[in-house]
Amino acid sequence: MKDQTCRTRRIAATLLTASIAQTVLTAGAEASEERFKEAMQLREQHHYKKAKKIYEELINTDPQNARAHQELGAVYASQGKYSEALTEEGKALKLDPQLHLAHIYRGMIYCNKERLLDAYEEFKKAQLIKPESYVVHMRLGLVASRLKRFQESLDWYQGAAKIFPERSAPHLALSEVYIKMGTIDRAIQEAEQAVDLEKTASTLGYLGDVYSLVNRLDEAKTNLEKALQLDPALIQTYLTLGRVYVLTGDFEKAETTYEKARSLSSGNREAWLALSLLKDKSIHRVIVVDSSPEFVEENGACFPRITITVKNVSGIDLSDKPLEFRAIFEKLENGSRAHARAKFKGAFKPEETIEVALRSRKAFDFQADSGKRPFVQCTVNCKVGETSMFQSQYILDRLMQDRIKIKDAAGAPEQTPNL
Fold this sequence. Notes:
Elements: H1 2-44, H2 48-61, H3 66-78, H4 82-95, H5 100-112, H6 116-129, H7 134-146, H8 150-163, H9 169-181, H10 184-197, H11 201-213, H12 217-230, H13 235-248, H14 251-264, H15 269-278, E1 286-298, E2 301-312, E3 323-331, E4 337-344, E5 353-359, E6 376-384, E7 393-400, E8 404-407
Parallel strand pairs: 1-8
Antiparallel strand pairs: 1-2, 2-5, 3-4, 3-6, 6-7
Helix pairs in contact: 1-2, 2-3, 3-4, 3-5, 4-5, 5-6, 5-7, 6-7, 7-8, 8-9, 9-10, 10-11, 11-12, 11-13, 12-13, 13-14, 14-15
């Protein structure tokens, strides 16, 4: 009986000790979690030194704390100390190979270092650990796009949209990829869907930007103005809206808009340059009221061309004043450029229009039977009279559609094929 009582007491003591130990462990885990939260708040406020100190204290208390190494690496990355950051992420993964976030941090560091293939591999490792990670899908979509793997990029972004169908970010990203691919209708649809999901300053501003590039300038103005009502501090949106006002000939509003951008960022070069040109009384204003972009194929080579209708809105007779036009055609897929120039001198009274064609001498890669057409952004500037090229007016910026005209080697009349 006595032995039984002793055994019972020993068991009770053991259970009590285990309970106390578990309580201590639980309390320690809770305290550790509170420290992680505190450090995260400091990072959000950009107090990196204080956050770093907390992670180092956690590691000193428990050198096997993989998560502390992981987050310390993130702090180093935020400070631009990429070598130290990669070392800490390596320690974290050695302690716990299932830390998918450590791979994400490593991938982000490699992106910043322009080591895109290494970044891709890190994000893929994270995706294998956590296949349904929204962040990983978005990161893989971004890197694939930068590697010009556009179809793969679409797949990752579409996967992100399925994981969180209520978020707008995947649709904005999809729109950007579709623009690079030349699928402008889909680009517009995705941008519009982003606004339908989340009507924010960011989504409205982006949709306005897309509308401006396809020459839907009234819709562009509406969305950009709504974006600035929601967030009056968006410098880039002011700049885009200023360009739209210039393109439509509303120079007073353009000046006011650029002034606002400059007040938010006094050193902004685009705002400063635009204002100096808008206030220059020696510049005689003209605007583009219609444009017809196309690609002309000759001997298997594809040349971009745009025909513009230009209106004299200067209020004075520009007859016999020389007008010089310069177009820049940029292939969005790889950034290659082609240029074109044209001159006009003749009757051009106030409110009259003239037609000008600008065709590049340089061809873009193109095969008519492949179905792959170059997707090009065209920007046109104009210099009127004796002003310098520095004072040339920005009069058009748009995405060229895939309209193609064919001219055979013998110089036969152009035809528009059924594409």
